[in-house]
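User: structure tokens for this one?
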Amino acid sequence: MSAQYAIIRAAIRAGLPIATATLIRTGGPPGAKLLVFPDGRSEGALGDPDLVRRVVADARDLLAQGATRVVEYADLGVAVFVESFVPPPTLFMVGGVHISIALGTLAKVVGFRTVVVDARSTFATAARFPHADELVLAWPDEALQGRLDARSCVAVLTHDPKLDDPALRVALASPARYIGALGSPRTHAKRLERLRGAGFSATQLARIHAPIGLPIGAKTPQEIALSILAEVVSVQRKGESSEP
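Assistant:
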């Protein structure tokens, strides 16, 4: 067991997600523990290979959500407590604009890891974003490819189709939890037309929250940032998912 705790501790310190699955009601020895990784690997034993297979599948789903709960396997007379240990969710802000400055500051307060993406060197600077966890000077499609998981949130804020559309194409093809885009209803209608032309379905396009943010009458960059973050948190807490 001490070896398992060492693995858990190392994963947490490295910012890597890991889940533990502990038998809490069973005909066998209670307390048996299985460690489950996002790629489906596991460490430990629960005594029944079929139970292990099912627990790994369920634990991976819960880990993707960052959720912790008791899972019942009534047909086996077993209950397993699955606990997820995950790094903070990441908010990707596409566009180093004024709204991003305010949004990044607020997002840090509520526990997000913040990443600013912009291909324009005058926008994505440490001077403008001193509190950002990461600045990526690259085109959004290059910067986001392969980085979005089920706990990622993407706010597309440049108001420039050359930057916004590539970001949305990558986000829509990912399991990102939240996808939002700045712009008026008219701007968004034109955006949807372009994305439909790129082959995205109505179901996929419905994942985009636009105009971005909750309707609180926001005017200033700070107020708009507040409305965006409120919407992001609402999606997370209410269990709404942006998965395809």
